[in-house]
Design goal:
There is one protein chain. This protein has 216 residues and is an alpha/beta fold. The chain has a single domain (2-213), classed as Formyl transferase, N-terminal domain (Rossmann fold, 3-Layer(aba) Sandwich). It has 6 helices and 10 strands; from the N terminus they run E-H-E-H-E-H-E-H-E-H-E-E-H-E-E-E. The strands form 2 sheets. It has an 8-stranded mixed sheet, covered by helices on one side. Helix 1 packs parallel to helix 6 (163-186). 38% of the residues are buried. The structure holds 5-O-phosphono-beta-D-ribofuranosylamine. Residues 8, 10-15, 43, 87-88, 108-110, 170-171, 174 line the site of 5-O-phosphono-beta-D-ribofuranosylamine (GRF).
């Protein structure tokens, strides 16, 4: 069974979806550790309620980004996970750590990348009257929100939809697609080779990535 470390900064709803999927055997893996950079994050409570150990590495206690990354690196090296999942982790990681873990670190981003890397994606979708919004799951590279894409989940933006409603629907598809992709990685059906995502035994990765459209 694959060992998964999950990095969070906030509410942790995706973390909870991942832990639940592991517990119900929908992910062929187990969350061995949760790492959080914000001691006030609600995700810490969620993890504790689900009996998962949380390591707090508060970025405010480090003088530089590199020092924070080094502490994270040394903890990850110690727990030695097969997969590192960034689930609402809001720190930008530097070159050294992203290179070291590049074939085992994935991120969830709430936009259809390469559209809208960075923050405030929901606002941008609404401002631009985009037809669709969605999520991207990708391997992490040193460039922000720009690593090799594994999967995208899309929804249609409704007429006059509020930001809160849009976010709620984005969360719903995150909680479906993210555990599913994590499971395929754990089963060895998705991997990274020469900076390219490799799919095995997956019929729906024809265009070089998995793309799902959700009606909800
Ligand atoms: C998610 O929408 C994720 O895409 C973004 O931050 C949010 C985290 O939510 N990066 P949660 O902490 O998993 O509830």
């Amino acid at each position: 069974m694959k060992k998964i470390a999950v990095l969070i900064s906030g509410s942790g709803s995706n973390l909870e979806a991942i832990i639940n999927a592991c517990n119900s055997k929908n992910i062929d893996g187990t969350v061995i550790s949760v790492i959080c950079n914000d001691p006030k994050a609600y995700g810490i409570e969620r993890a504790k309620n689900l009996n998962i150990e949380v390591r707090i590495i508060n970025h405010k206690e480090f003088l530089t980004r590199e020092d924070f990354d080094d502490e994270l690196d040394s903890y990850l090296t110690q727990v030695s996970p097969d997969l590192i999942v960034l689930a609402g982790f809001m720190r930008i990681l530097g070159n050294k750590i992203t290179k070291k873990f590049d074939n085992k670190m994935i991120n969830l981003h709430p936009s259809i990348l390469p559209l809208y890397p960075g923050l405030n994606t929901h606002e941008k979708v609404l401002q631009n009257n985009d037809k669709n919004h969605g999520i991207t799951i990708h391997y992490v590279s040193s460039e922000l929100d720009a690593g090799p894409i594994i999967a995208q989940g899309l929804i249609e933006v409704k007429t006059n939809e509020s930001k809160d409603h849009l976010i709620e629907r984005i969360h719903k598809i995150e909680h479906i697609l993210f555990p599913e992709i994590i499971n395929e990685i754990c089963k060895g059906n998705i991997g990274l080779k020469n900076n390219k995502v490799i799919f095995k035994n997956l019929n729906d990765a024809n265009g070089g990535l998995i793309e799902r459209f959700y009606e909800l």
